[in-house]
Amino acid sequence: MNLQGTTGSLRMTPYFCLLLCWLVLPLQGLEILDPEEVEYIRSHATATVGGSVTLDCGSTMPNIFIWGFTKPGTDNNVALAYNYGQGPKLQSQTSSLGRMQVPVNTSALVIEELQRDAAGMYTCQALFDTDEGARITFYFTRLDVEDD
């Protein structure tokens, strides 16, 4: 697996503001000090058909995370997994990509028995409750799946 990352800021659109409000509901008392800035981190991973890959959603466990997938050539982002603080849940549409799991006490997405259809853009939306207020980070990982 090959990973390369960069960091930057992204201005929030009304959609992200609504998403943020929706994510914040489970965290009572969460204060967002600066919702105008969102950090984003981009990376690239390569894996083989039938193999496995681990996609990271940061080095520390977020309070809330949502994994999504966008197939190349489409704008449709499909939810794969999420954790609103009560343990990770996988969505049923994950089977066409491979066998997915979110290991205990992590926000990483592990895909085993990779299918060719697993190639695409994976997005982890992570919300961290810090002493300075809420911090939101989007992790974008482009996954290329190659023949064995």
TrEMBL record:
SMART domains: IG (SM00409). Keywords: Signal. InterPro entries: Ig-like_dom, Ig-like_dom_sf, Ig-like_fold, Ig_sub, Ig_V-set. Residues 35-137 form the Ig-like domain. Residues 1-29 form the signal peptide. This is Ig-like domain-containing protein. It comes from Lates japonicus. The lineage of its organism: Eukaryota, Metazoa, Chordata, Craniata, Vertebrata.
